[in-house]
Amino acid sequence: MKQEAAPGSIDAVHPPDAITRSLEMSMRRLVMIMRGLGWFWMLLLVVATLLIDSQANKAIVIGAMALATVWTGVTWWAHKKESRLGSAWFMVSDGVVCLIVASASYAAGAGDLFHGGYPISWIAVLAYGGGLRWAVGGSLILAGQQAVLLLESGRSAVSAIGSIVFLIYGLMLGWLFTVIRTSDRDRRETVAQLTAEREENARRLERLELANRLHDSALQTLQVIDTDADDPDRVRSLARRQARDLRNLVERYSDERCTTFNECLVGAIGMVEELFAVKISAVVRIELPIDPSLQALVEASREAMTNSAKYAGTKRIDVYAAIENGDAIVYVRDDGEGFDMGNTDLGHGIEHSIRSRMAEVGGSADIISAPANGTEVVLRVAVEGATV
């Protein structure tokens, strides 16, 4: 019987994916096909009974066909959702209808059985909703009912024994649906294990790469500094270069850990506050998954905050991020010293880390500043699915 996944079960630990949902839909379609074939089979036999068997009670024959037709429509409605077709109420109701249809031939006094394969489709419903045990249980009920009715109507014991065909259908369909679901659960578990292993390998390689880069840059630079300690200019130059390398390294590894723009920007704000002992007041109203455009926006915002913290001579920076007219926009403002835009070399940080970075993703960076009036950096990039 289909029900909510129990805590700790494979369905709870590894939820059904697209392949699982496709398999479930295919199984529901198979149930519907069997119901449709059973209905068509019964329709042919009912027409033949009405035309040939003058002893059969036509009202019962037509009534059974009408019931089967209406319930086939209900089955079509139920098979659209897993929770309907696999529910206990539907399986029980389906069984009641199929048992009534299966007994209609005897109630009508027909010379031959006209229910065809309609009752067999109940076994398919049970196999889908409850697996092998429910399918076998339902097939035993059908087999028992048919054997009793055959004997009661004066048929031979051989005909009654032939009702075992329902049990065969129950075993086959129950086994088929159970194997499909078991194989799919095994697949999901294997995929989850492989994914975990790949992630662990990725983390191991990341740690190894980080260790190699620190060895190749930071440690070697420190050794050179130790050797050239009596050359202040050389030491300062090496320290500045190493600071840039380490900052790029920190940015690379910290950025990969966030998944949303909000998370990435807040992380960048925290890093700047910690490094430069500056207070950053932030309002972030963008909740979107991080992508290359938004990642560039985060990195440019970090550079803008860093410039304010290092050069503006202020202890407070304001950051505001929101969606405006389909664009993600970040404002970085400070009330510091400012500078003359026309007579100041903007330097590598603004030209490359801010303007070029935004231009690469189709965005823009506007810088507004004047001596003693602080600086405002406006960063803008178009994003899809933008919501405030």
Contiguous low-pLDDT stretches (5 residues minimum) are 2-10
How does the overall form come out from the CA principal axes? elongated
Helix content: 55-70%
Give the termini separation: 43 Å
Biggest pleated-sheet summary? 5 strands, mixed
Summed over residues and divided by their number, the pLDDT gives a mean of: 84
What structural class results from the helix and strand content?
A: alpha+beta
Integer tally of domains? 2
Give the helices and strands as they follow along the chain: HHHHHHHHHHEHEEHEE
Strand order of the largest sheet: 1-2-3-5-4
Count of alpha/pi helices: 12
Rg of Cα set: 37 Å
Total E-strand runs: 5
Strand residue content: 5-15%
Oligomer: single chain
Compose a concise summary of this entry.
The protein is α+β, with helices and mostly antiparallel strands. It has 12 helices and 5 strands.
Architecture overview:
- This protein folds into two domains: 10-193, no CATH class; 258-388, Histidine kinase-like ATPase, C-terminal domain (Heat Shock Protein 90), CATH 3.30.565.10.
- It is built from twelve helices and five strands.
- The protein has helices spanning 10-13, 18-52, 58-78, 82-85, 88-107, 120-152, 157-161, 165-227, 232-255, 261-276, 292-311, 347-360, and strands at residues 279-284, 316-324, 327-334, 364-369, 375-382.
- Strands 1-2-3-5-4 form a five-stranded mixed beta sheet.
- The longest helix is centred in the middle third of the chain and has 63 residues, at 165-227.
